[in-house]
Structure formats: C-alpha cells, structure tokens
Write a structure and sequence with these properties.
This protein has 369 residues and is α+β, with helices and mostly antiparallel strands. Helix content is 24%, strand content 28%. It has eleven helices and 15 strands. The strands form three sheets. Strands 1-2-3-4-5-7-6 form a seven-stranded mixed beta sheet, covered by helices on one side. The protein has a six-stranded mixed beta sheet with strand order 9-12-11-10-8-15. Strands 13-14 form a two-stranded antiparallel sheet. Strand 6 and strand 7 form a beta hairpin. It is globular and about 75 Å long. The relative contact order is 0.11.
Length: 369
Amino acid sequence: MKYKDYDILSVRRYKFSDLNLNDSFFDTLKEDYPEFQNWFIKKGDKTAFVVKEKENIQAFLYMKVEKEEEDYSHFIKPFSPGERLKIGTFKISKNGLYLGERFFRIILEHAIINDVEEVYVTIFPKRPEQKKLIEFLDTFGFTLFTKNKITNELVYVRKMKCIQFSEPNLCNYPYIKNSQERKFYMLAIDADYHTKLIPDSILREENPDEITSKISASNAVQKTYIGNYRINPKPGDILIYYRNKPVGDNRPAKYAATITGFGLVSQHYRFIGTYEEVSSIVSKRTVLTEVEIKDKIRKYKGVNILKFFDIYSFRKRPIRNFLISQQILKSIGFENGYERHEYPTKEITREQFEAIFQEAKFKKGILFI
C-alpha cells in the first residue's frame, strides 16, 4: 500500500509495535472485538495514522488495500471482485471528534493514491463515537451496503472515481465535475491566517509545530473566509488560493507571494452586519477570533462570508511573478517609480485557470471527473 506523510496537524504514522496497547483509548475496541489484542500484536510492523495529545492517543486509523481475489463470503451481500481500500480500524476519542473531517480527507486521499475503485468500513452502531463516525460516513458519500453475517457489523461503502451528487457536496469529495459552466476566482489570504486555515498548503519556511490539531478550522474540510472582498462566486465555482507576502518578508512580493492550491465554493453570504449572524454561519470553521471578527464588521460595516471545500494543495507553487508574466495580474500603472498590478482577489478566465494548473504541474484528471 502506498502512503502519504502529513507533516502538520499532529497526524503521524506509527508502527503498531511503537504504540501502547494498554492505552485506555483501545479499551472499547478490546470490548467489541475479543481478538483485538492478538490482532494488534500480529500487526507489529504495519502502519497506522495516529494523533496523540501528550502520550495519550486521540485518534487511530489503519487501512489496507484489498485485491480482486479477496473473499467477502462473510458478508450477507458479498462485494463483486475489485480493488478496495478497507478502513480496518478507525476510532476517534470523544475529545477528538473535531478530527473527523481531517481523517476522512486522509482516507479518501489514500484511496486516490492507491487507485482503488471503492472504500469500505465495517462498524458497530453502538457507542457515541461510533454513531458520530457513521454521521461522517454519510457526509462523505458512504452508503450502507450490507452486514457482516458473523459479527453483525454494518458495512458502509464509498465509490471512487465518480460524481454521485449534484455539486457542491462533500459526498463527491474530493472529486469535481468537469463542467464548462463554473467560474474561476483567486482569493488573497493574509500569510498570518493562510496556513491555519489551509494547513496542507504550508510552505517550507513555515514551522508545522505552530499549527496543531486543536485548531478546529484547520481540521475541517469545509473552510470559512470572512472579509470585504469584491468577488461574488457562486456555489460550485473554483477558488484559487493566493497567499499574500508575509509581513516582515524582505523579498519583493513577486517572489514572496504564491499560489498554494484550490477549493470548491460551497456557500456565499454577503453583507452580514452583526457578530451574532456571523457566528451562527461560521461556527468553529474560522481562524479569526471574536475580537477580529467584530473589528472587521465595524471597519467594513458588515462582512462577506465565503465557505469552500479545500480540495488540493499544489506541490509546485506558482509565484506572483508568473501571474504578472501571464497577465493574470494586469498592470494598472506606476506609482513612485514602481509598477502596480491588480489586487489578486479577482475573477479569472478558464484559460488563466488552466495556465495556473499547468504551471503547478497539476494533472486535472486525478480529481476532475
């Protein structure tokens, strides 16, 4: 099985043999599965994704790829032959349920990396944390397929490489319909907030230890941006992330500002005038504090709120200089001997969008269906 490493948000890969089987985190698994302890020991050199708080485990995910010859006779309705990603063991503690979206992103990314047709999991619907995971399964497009006739566990399945529902919808995540109708926008995000909001787009010069799994907005797949921007995207439009030059960076902006990734607009609210309204819309999906939100409302006499699904972070990041050279950011004249260009929060053409993807060396066929 192919793996991706995550250098941010406290998610780390561990061998089973490096974990403490006596951690109270595993108690319910031992109760539900009498053979769990022996199974765990036998998996000694296998890999799991784990989040720890100090030394206490908060989340655990083990996956494996199953080939076409896998035997599913223990299911009431067996699967047809095919390659699948099995979520072998998945648990999030009550204290760590905010990690749910983060881990479903990891699951689906590994389904794509390993080029499987489906993802499935068997789960008991007994405990509160199990019921919460089932809610996440529903949210991310998994459907109840059958039961395990030996254990009576529910079997949930998610098909890959397809668009199942009208956009935007997390049931399709991270796939996007290859539509000719959508529009394209760039959104400038201040460096101070960029990586807290979109942690997978962290830059090499940033310290990943400053972005922890305790930041709810960082773990969320659906992000929220609050500001007084002038664009008016609709649900289903593409949003390109433009990270502004950080304060204190002495490099010219054309080298210090960069494109880091893209998302899919899910909701858009305009001219929201009170903190109570903003709070009811954004919940815990913003990296702004209450004071910062109130300051924005007061300064701009109301704010706009943009919600979007974070889809992909580029490995190769186009810089501002590229946008200028391609006239994606056009010149608007000179001031004090320096050429000025358009503000990067703007609508762009399909051709400009394609040019950014080409510069980023992103293969659209991976996610655009």
